[in-house]
Amino acid sequence: MWAICKKEFRQFFSNLTGYITIILFLLLNGLFLFVFSSFNILDYGYATLENFFNLSPYILLLLIPAVTMRLFPDEWRAGTMEILFTRPLTTRQIVLGKYIASLLVVLIALLPTLTYLITINAMSADGTSLDLGGIIGSYIGLLFLCAAFTAIGICCSSFTGNPVVAFLLSAFFCFVLYSGFTALSKLAGTGFDYVVEMLGMEFHYRSLSKGVIDSRDVIYFLSITLFTLFITTQRIGRKK
């Protein structure tokens, strides 16, 4: 499993594609948070990273599918998947190796965003105005969100041999699972809106962003992650 993880991790950074993907993610965040007026955190007048945590899930909808879209399509196209099947590796180890490598890449892309925390804290009036509890909870929510999005991206890539199709499918399903149920809850009748909203990722992400780690939110994200990885394992197992 770790051999697969190392191979995928090195392969992602073996060309400019990996670096460009991360740079574009950070550039988009920077432009929205410090340049564009609709999300500019400097216009708030007080120290907060709320806009960053509101914006990040939607940018991750593009970043994570870009990271995962080639994981299995490239293997099928190059014929290296058959070689992996002949190695002493289980299907679960192959899937987990690719999953961990992709998740590490996404976490590396998130690390530079900690500079936003340092910058806003330094610019605040007394240097202690930030709600650290809420920020820590929001970052934990982002970690769980990244884990779920990455699992969905890998699952979608296992169903097609075309990287572009894999990108579109994973971006679509991530968007539906994140925002779709929130939109549907507004159409549902009274008494059902809360139940429908609870089915979406956004509800549980917002809950974690309050700084309170609720076991129900953790179980929700873990369930989606494990379920999609299980589907991926079954899909690759059938191919094997």
Automatic annotation (TrEMBL):
Q: Which Pfam families match?
A: ABC2_membrane_2 (PF12679)
Ordered alphabetically, the record's keywords are: Cell membrane, Membrane, Transmembrane, Transmembrane helix
Where found, per UniProt?
Cell membrane
Which spans are transmembrane here? 12-35, 55-73, 94-120, 132-152, 164-184, 218-237
**Would the keyword Transmembrane be found if you checked this record's keyword annotation?**
yes
Q: What is the lineage of its organism?
A: Bacteria, Pseudomonadati, Bacteroidota, Chitinophagia, Chitinophagales
MF annotations from Gene Ontology? ABC-type transporter activity
Q: What is this protein called?
A: Gliding motility-associated ABC transporter permease subunit GldF
Q: Which gene encodes it?
A: gldF
Q: How does it sit in the membrane?
A: Multi-pass membrane protein
Name a single GO cellular component: plasma membrane
